[in-house]
Amino acid sequence: MPYKKPKIEKILYSIGEVADMFGVNVSHIRYWENQFEALKPVKNKKGNRQFTKKDIETIRFIHHLVKERGLTIEGARKKLKENPEDTLNNFEVVKRLQDIKQELIAIKEGLGENEN
After folding, report:
1. Which of 77, 59, 69 is nearest to 23 (CA)?
2. What is the pTM of this model?
3. What CA–CA distance (Å, rounded) separates 102 from 94?
4. pLDDT tens digits in sequence order for the chain, 116 residues long
5. Strand ranges (DSSP E) for the chain?
């Protein structure tokens, strides 16, 4: 039986890595950290921010509200405070639908290649 190298998942991400994930500047992440109570990354001894998977999900949610839905920072803050469960559920549904759409596009492209 061949040896399978275990997949190592990162636990903490730097601010630069997180900014790259979302295609925003590092300053966006710092600003969002100041504006949203839910986003509080840990800092190491040097003072560098280290983001957990939970922090990244929070940023994904903020990014969705601000960049994709076009809400202001204040509007996004209100959404998170007033009805976080419904807002989060809607976000998860939209995310799943986008994933399904990408899978369908990949299948369609795969079928198109087989026709030639």
Report:
1. 59
2. 0.68
3. 12
4. 677 777 777 789 999 999 999 999 999 999 999 999 888 999 999 999 999 998 998 898 888 888 888 889 998 888 877 766 766 667 777 778 888 998 999 888 888 766 55
5. 13-14, 42-43, 49-51
